[in-house]
Structure formats: structure tokens, C-alpha cells
Amino acid sequence: MKQISINETPVFIGTSGYKFEDWIGKFYPKGISNYHMLPFYTKKDYLNLLEMTFTFYNIPYLNTIKSIVDRGEDLTFSVRLNKRFLKGRYNQQDIKDFLHGLTPIIEKGKLAAFFADFNYAFSASKENFEHLEKLSNDFKDFPLFFELPNRTWYKNRFLELFQEKRIGLIVLDMPQIKGLAPYYPFSSNNYTYFRLYGRSKLWLTPEDKILDYEYSKQELEQFYNDLKVLSLTSKKVFISFCNVIDAKACKNAKQFYDIIVQNEKN
């Protein structure tokens, strides 16, 4: 497995999904089939993480997951929780079914984390925090991180609760518009997880989610500097580029990898 580190802390760099038609000719070679996209992705030295996102919509099937694991031989995976868990309407059998479908990843030791990306409507409250706490307990065998784009979660009393309960909070980079989460470098469960959406000026309301943005070298260096600090108290660091339009996520992942390599050599 490809090794990258900051302060000797393992770093995992990847993108949110990989099967995009607009990546063909920009990241993937022209004429590539969907089946061969993942083997191409995994051969890149700067990509050692993949966010598996389709699991949000469907409980994973063993054969599908086995095929992905076999083709992504050098990758570690972060798996998106199914929507039923985010809605709170689930039972223990649902958890067993979800984990059973992921058996090929788990048995090969390639499941790095779970993440649950709540929408903007999920605002901070005692009831909603209890839901996060329950999910953390139900998936306690693996690091679980929550994406909470509503700015109400970033008040001190909730940030302190995340640390006290050791509940993972994703560091989000989004446009700084009213209501959206601030960029707040933070680790609350001995791991660090960044999801970088970009700062598109066309993203005008919290619900828009415009992913057509390319980070500058200066912006990427700021992420590196923040991760350098957080890595000192983290077992692992995860960085997912979510600015997937026109393969900008792949380009920025390569640039970020180069920044790490250059700085860690010095």
C-alpha cells in the first residue's frame, strides 16, 4: 500500500468517488471503460484513499464490493453511511446487513473510516447530537466522522461535546457564505478528516453545492500547514477532494501530494 506521511503520521489522499464521465480526457485516457477506471486510479502514487459514496443510496452487495477491492488493490477506503442511518430509522439488523456487504473491505483491512454527510437542514440541537452519539456507538469498531455543514454546530458548547465524547467531526472547506460551516481545523477523536469542496463564487446559498473549483497552490499550502499541526495528535489523517467537476479533485490531490513530499523531505 502506498505510504504518505506528515510528521510520521500516515496520510491518506483521495477523491469523493471516481466514476465520472467528465474525467475522461482530463484524468482518465480517452476510450477507457467504467470497469478500468478504478485500476487506473489506484496506479497513481498520489492517490491512496477512495471515498465510496454509492453506499449512501443502497446497502452494498458482497460481489460489488469484492470487485472494487480487487481492482483497487493499493487503496484504503472511506465508506459513506447509508441514508437510513442518517435519518435515524434503522435497527441492529440494518447495521449487520450494511457491514456484511462490506466484508471484503473489512477482511482485507482496507476500511479506514466511515463518514456521514448530513445536509444543511440538520442543525445543532440536543436531540440531533444524541443521534450522532448513537451512530458513533453503533459503529464504534471503526473511526466514524460527521460532516455537518450547518454553522450552528460550530459553537463552543458543541465543539467541546465532540471532544468530550470523542466524536469525529469532519473539517470542511466550503465558500464562506451565511449559514455554512466555517473552515475550522479540528480533531476530536484522535484522527483528522478534511473534505474539501472548493470555494466557487457560484455557490450562493448553503444548499447549492457547486463543485467546480480548483484550489490554488497557496490554498493547498494552508491545508498542509494546518494538517502539520493536527498530525501531531492524530493516528491517521484523511483528505478527500470533493471538487470533482472536470477532474479538478485529481489535479489538486496531485499538487497536495507534491507539497507534502517536498516539505517532508526538508
What topology emerges from the helices and strands here?
Blueprint: E1 5-6, E2 9-16, H1 34-42, E3 49-52, H2 62-71, E4 76-80, H3 83-87, H4 92-101, H5 103-107, E5 111-117, H6 126-138, E6 144-147, H7 156-165, E7 168-169, E8 171-173, E9 191-196, H8 217-230, E10 236-241, H9 248-265
Helix pairs in contact: 8-9
CATH level 1 name: Alpha Beta
**Rounded mean pLDDT score:** 96
Proportion of beta-strand residues = 15-25%
Write the H/E string, N to C.
Answer: EEHEHEHHHEHEHEEEHEH
Summarize the structure.
By secondary structure, this protein is α/β, with parallel strands linked by helices.
Can you characterise this structure?
The protein is α/β, with parallel strands linked by helices and 266 residues long. The chain has a single domain, classed as Alpha-Beta Barrel (TIM Barrel), CATH 3.20.20.410. It has nine helices and ten strands. Strands 1, 2, 3, 4, 5, 6, 7, 8, 9 and 10 form a ten-stranded mixed beta sheet that branches. Helix 8 crosses helix 9. The longest helix is centred in the C-terminal third of the chain and has 18 residues. The protein is globular. The protein starts with a strand and ends with a helix. Pfam families: DUF72. This is DUF72 domain-containing protein. InterPro entries: DUF72 (IPR002763), UPF0759_sf (IPR036520).
Keywords:
266 residues, ten-stranded mixed beta sheet, 10 strands, 9 helices, 18% strand, TIM Barrel, single chain, alpha/beta
